[in-house]
Amino acid sequence: MIIFFSFLSIWFDWFNNFNCFLLFVIVFFVFFVFFFLFFFNFFFNLNLGFGLLEFWMCFIPIFFLISQIIPSIFLLFFFNFSNTSSDLTIKVVGHQWYWSYEIGDNLGFFFDSFMLSDEFFVLGDYRLLEVDNRLILPVNFFVRFVLTSFDVIHSWTLPMFFLKMDVMSGLLNIMDFFFESVGVFYGQCSEICGANHSFMPVVIELTLMNFFKSFFIF
């Protein structure tokens, strides 16, 4: 079971569960309609009539669509349009097979993040998920990610925050997010990008602003 660590990720998880429930209701409704149309065709002809039947056949799908439109608009607004400015910008570049990060707009601080080899493991590290250089970010700040690729298509993913963004060469994708929880969070490239696709993890360490300043000189 995945534990989510932000308001938006909890809502995305709820919306995913709601869509699964809605899909079950739609499938049940379709089977129900076909069953009665096949076995009780005379009942619809004599009692309901085609006018009333057509009304319900139009109203129920519209109801299903509206029940998806309302939460979708809510989530899209808060994910993309609730923040018009960012406190910190992170540039993410995907390579075969590692990630590069650049911190800040004018700081010029950049580093590469490779998967940690087995000989450098310490107690508590996760195999195939730990990296040599973590991306350290402050909590309670709006962070803007600018993502691109140096070669093939990659996908920068953090499942615990419901974050997933494909990165392509020659294209800048922008994603804003507000981190609320302190901790270390893991992800992986979610787009098949070659022989070592499984060996380019994503690790971010979220900390308080005072500790974040100790890592970088502003």
From TrEMBL:
<dbReference type="GO" id="GO:0042773">
    <property type="term" value="P:ATP synthesis coupled electron transport"/>
</dbReference>
<keyword id="KW-0249">Electron transport</keyword>
<dbReference type="InterPro" id="IPR045187">
    <property type="entry name" value="CcO_II"/>
</dbReference>
<comment type="similarity">
    <text>Belongs to the cytochrome c oxidase subunit 2 family.</text>
</comment>
<keyword id="KW-0186">Copper</keyword>
<dbReference type="InterPro" id="IPR002429">
    <property type="entry name" value="CcO_II-like_C"/>
</dbReference>
<dbReference type="InterPro" id="IPR036257">
    <property type="entry name" value="Cyt_c_oxidase_su2_TM_sf"/>
</dbReference>
<dbReference type="InterPro" id="IPR008972">
    <property type="entry name" value="Cupredoxin"/>
</dbReference>
<keyword id="KW-1278">Translocase</keyword>
<keyword id="KW-0999">Mitochondrion inner membrane</keyword>
<keyword id="KW-0479">Metal-binding</keyword>
<dbReference type="GO" id="GO:0005743">
    <property type="term" value="C:mitochondrial inner membrane"/>
</dbReference>
<keyword id="KW-1133">Transmembrane helix</keyword>
<keyword id="KW-0812">Transmembrane</keyword>
<feature type="transmembrane region" description="Helical">
    <location>
        <begin position="56"/>
        <end position="79"/>
    </location>
</feature>
<comment type="subunit">
    <text>Component of the cytochrome c oxidase (complex IV, CIV), a multisubunit enzyme composed of a catalytic core of 3 subunits and several supernumerary subunits. The complex exists as a monomer or a dimer and forms supercomplexes (SCs) in the inner mitochondrial membrane with ubiquinol-cytochrome c oxidoreductase (cytochrome b-c1 complex, complex III, CIII).</text>
</comment>
<dbReference type="Pfam" id="PF00116">
    <property type="entry name" value="COX2"/>
</dbReference>
<feature type="transmembrane region" description="Helical">
    <location>
        <begin position="141"/>
        <end position="163"/>
    </location>
</feature>
<keyword id="KW-0472">Membrane</keyword>
<protein>
    <recommendedName>
        <fullName>cytochrome-c oxidase</fullName>
        <ecNumber>7.1.1.9</ecNumber>
    </recommendedName>
</protein>
<feature type="domain" description="Cytochrome oxidase subunit II copper A binding">
    <location>
        <begin position="85"/>
        <end position="218"/>
    </location>
</feature>
<keyword id="KW-0460">Magnesium</keyword>
<dbReference type="GO" id="GO:0005507">
    <property type="term" value="F:copper ion binding"/>
</dbReference>
<keyword id="KW-0813">Transport</keyword>
<dbReference type="InterPro" id="IPR001505">
    <property type="entry name" value="Copper_CuA"/>
</dbReference>
<feature type="transmembrane region" description="Helical">
    <location>
        <begin position="21"/>
        <end position="44"/>
    </location>
</feature>
<keyword id="KW-0496">Mitochondrion</keyword>
<dbReference type="GO" id="GO:0004129">
    <property type="term" value="F:cytochrome-c oxidase activity"/>
</dbReference>
